Amino acid sequence: xxxxxxxxxxxxxxxxxxxxxxxxxxxxxxxxxxxxxxxxxxxxxxxxxxxxxxxxxxxxxxxxxxxxxxxxxxxxxxxxxxxxxxxxxxxxxxxxxxx
Length: 99
What we know:
By secondary structure, the chain is mainly α. The protein has one domain (3-97). It has six helices and no strands. The chain has helices at residues 3-8, 12-28, 32-54, 59-75, 79-87, 89-97. α2 packs antiparallel against α6 (89-97) and α3 runs antiparallel to α4 (59-75). The two termini are 19 Å apart. The model is unreliable at 1-13 (pLDDT under 50).
């Protein structure tokens, strides 16, 4: 199991999040500080998602948590990185929804 899979959890969702993380690092040319913040944002989202699921929450609550993670991420990207992220949003969604 790779480093990111261990970090993000080796379960079904961990692989997709690890793939997304690696793609974002490459596409956005993130520095080490940004990578650390991104990992924190992913971990926080994962914990929120688990909490929502364990308390019987619905999909809209998970979508809201995902939107918060994205806003958090946008807060530490520079303008050029934000443009690249917006241009590749469909690609990133595809990574998360691949089978």
